[in-house]
Design goal:
It is a single chain. The chain has two domains: 118 residues, Rossmann fold (3-Layer(aba) Sandwich); 88 residues, Helicase, Ruva Protein, domain 3, CATH 1.10.8. It contains twelve helices and three strands; from the N terminus they run αβααβαβαααααααα. The termini are close together. It has 245 residues and is mainly α. 54% of the residues lie in helices and 6% in strands. Strands 1-2-3 form a three-stranded parallel β-sheet, sandwiched between helices. The longest helix is centred in the middle third of the chain and has 23 residues. It is elongated and about 65 Å long. The model has no long low-confidence stretch (mean pLDDT 85).
Length: 245
């Protein structure tokens, strides 16, 4: 899965594993690296051995570009090359098993990256399906606002569709930050001018004030979108060249 940061690639991987009813292994570069010589390759082998034992399984490798960046660069370490080679060997083994074994023994490898152009070519070939996870649409932004604000009291004048239009270009993570900051704005208005003792004396119900349009406007001034138009163009160009559905 390829896309800007904060678009929910990790959540999608977890949802896939849940829907398929498979055992889910969530790993990252820190999980598979060790300072001791040869340990990283052993960790990779152990991961795939466990995946086969608990099959059907889904192995999700987050930020795979940090493990399998392009080989042959001047700053590449020998240990990094060995880990890449072991991962490629294990993925080949999984691919061969899928063709011959029954579905109950299936091991599926999912990966996510924010930097697809940095991935090693051999790994890219093994990850046959390359899917773009874009920024949310207007409808998606409205749904994300509803999810993030489901336990927040809103002013009756607020129309979530209007806010969704204002946050075009925001990722899911950006929208979560905007909602959180707008909610805190309402609380700040409530405690403004009060002493610490008076604030502590307030009950939870007294601290809850409706979030207004002004709160969202202030939050949007503080929190800018994290993905630029140039970044989006770069993702789209890469998908035209290497993407597959």
């Amino acid at each position: 899965m390829v896309g800007p940061p904060g678009t929910g690639k990790t959540m999608l991987a977890k949802a896939v594993a849940t829907e398929c009813g498979t055992t889910f292994f969530n790993v990252s570069s820190s999980t598979l690296t060790s300072k001791y010589r040869g340990e990283s390759e052993k960790l990779v082998r152990l991961l795939f051995e466990m995946a086969r034992f608990y099959a059907p399984t889904t192995i999700f490798i987050d930020e795979i570009d940090s493990i399998c960046s392009r080989r042959g660069t001047s700053d590449e370490h020998e240990a990094s090359r060995r880990v890449k080679s072991e991962l490629l060997i294990q993925m080949d083994g999984v691919g061969g098993a899928l063709e011959n074994d029954d579905p109950s023994k299936m091991v599926m490898v999912l990966a996510a990256t924010n930097f697809p152009w940095d991935i090693d070519e051999a790994l890219r070939r093994r990850l046959e399906k390359r899917i773009y996870i874009p920024l949310p649409t207007a409808k998606g932004r409205t749904e994300l606002l509803k999810i993030n604000l489901r336990e927040v009291e809103l002013d009756p004048d607020i129309q979530l569709e209007d806010i969704a239009e204002k946050i075009e270009g925001y990722s899911g993570a950006d929208i979560t930050n905007v909602c959180r900051d707008a909610s805190l704005m309402a609380m700040r208005r409530r405690i403004n001018g009060l002493s610490p003792e008076e604030i502590r004396a307030l009950s939870k119900e007294e601290l809850q004030m409706p979030v207004t349009k002004g709160d969202f406007e202030l939050a949007l001034k503080k929190i800018a979108k994290s993905v630029s138009a140039a970044d989006l163009e770069k993702y789209e160009k890469w998908m035209v060249e290497f993407g597959s559905a």
